[in-house]
């Protein structure tokens, strides 16, 4: 193929992939199987790798992420990012309609009613049909540039479809995290002993501010657009403009409606207040906009918000009920969560019996007492919460809650770290819920994947004293008679169980490392640590500094790993697992791609490459080299990509450090 043909091929593949992306993400209507899609993307990435001069910033290959932003640059908004006037009452909504009608001198107004998506506001700038910048709302005047992270969101077009889009415009909208994805992420966070996100909004905004775009990519954010801005917008109405934007490739939810007159608006609000629970994303109200652009112009703006729009916010539903008792739950990590046991009460379509009280400080702040009538709310959060106490109904005999001092499960004295909100039970190896939780994590799908063993069976085996820790699972094959004597354990289920456990012995090292449940070690970090150290023997003896050399391992994680292996009990457990035959080193195939060609050499990489920086780093490590972040006299090579920081180059030149490109690096290895 000639260079021109290759360029055309890359071009047409990119277009085809973006078309599929649009159907999948913006329309939720895939037109190709995941497998075929991956094949197309692989082909594109291969071509771009071989012809880096044709890797364009709007290539769909950029959606997988890989760039790392150390510090987000602050960008001034061309048009201020205004907010909306808020109301919670129908009366005020009527006042708004009256003001608008008066201002326009008309009897009735056509409104565009839209859902108020609860996420992170973002502005996307397009030039010549290409995404050139994404900026968060920030304080309204300036925000953070998050373009690389935005590019990983499938529903944000990198290049627009054919259409009559203006040469240069901005579109604004909300980055959200679907509830289904939110639940999955929180489950994973709990699995590795991290505090879950309070709600999808926090998760979306936390994710958009992450430095590693590959992680952002894995989080599956979504983006709904709600406003077109620019000097050359030739549409007459808001509705028309967002309909057009949908054709250009943006995700514009279909719930927006044109409604004439405020009574219809009220009906729209009522409908969504009732049906909001059925959506897969959070909304906190409805936005009502005057549809005609001319009319919007006539009405104008106050200093902070447009006079032509208002947000009607849903009240968090609130009920009063009696607090019967407070019980305490112990999590897998030993964290204690106080739970309010309530007199059952109907709230937002469900019967509520429990509410989380989070920690001792919250109980103290609310001054809730057993027997109190408390107000329970279901707002953006999934779990209902107690927001206050009806003091008038408090009995004169009531006493302040005395927080427990000992574990409700194993009676060990609780501990609370200086900066910690929660109390912890330190009896990691003797406290039943902690033991059972660890085993549940160990067998889970992304860990050892022993699907013949669920939570109930684990509890049953633990209660029957057949297992006390994860290593005991590998002794069960010799306890068949005891297993058969248990309830619901017929010959077939026992055989399945033992077979499932046996099968897990082929699970590769990185997943075993994730499964053993070192605090803060998630799936991705486990993989990075496994690749870096290659075997558990090397890892056990690793010092904090060595751990910090692994990409993405920070201080908290390094300390956690060191502490884990310092504990004799853990080492003993690992030895038992080793004896049982689990994989504690990289396999021959995994090692085959390795060499010592870069031994004793240290590298700094900077700029953009044809493959992700993480892949380059991994390649260096696989061949015995070391990655460091700053150029010093000890650096052997500075590997320079596109747009490399000028400071790094200057420093390397000053210190006489060799500067090489990607191709030269590949030559060193091959
Ligand atoms: S229009 C000039 N429409 O609500 C004002 N905003 O206070 C333009 N929001 O954080 C805003 N859904 O990100 C508009 N359908 C929608 C919206 C929406 C959510 C957010 C917006 C901002 C806040 C406005």
The total number of structural domains is 6
**Oligomer state of the chains in this structure:** single chain
Overall strand count: 20
Task: Assign the CATH topology of the largest domain.
Answer: D-amino Acid Aminotransferase, Chain A, domain 1
Report the biggest beta sheet as strand number plus sense, adding barrel if it closes.
5 strands, mixed
Question: N- to C-terminal separation?
Answer: 25 Å
Bulk shape: globular
User: Strand percentage, roughly?
Assistant: 15-25%
State the helix count: 25
Instruction: Please estimate the helix content.
Output: 25-40%
Main-sheet strand order equals 2-11-10-3-9
Structural class estimated from helices and strands: alpha+beta
CATH superfamily of the largest domain: DNA ligase/mRNA capping enzyme
Low-confidence stretches: none
Instruction: Just give the CATH class of the largest domain.
Output: Alpha Beta
Roughly what is the average pLDDT, rounded to an integer? 91
CATH architecture of the largest domain: 2-Layer Sandwich
Q: Which cofactor or ligand species appear? A: 2-(butylsulfanyl)adenosine
Rg? 29 Å
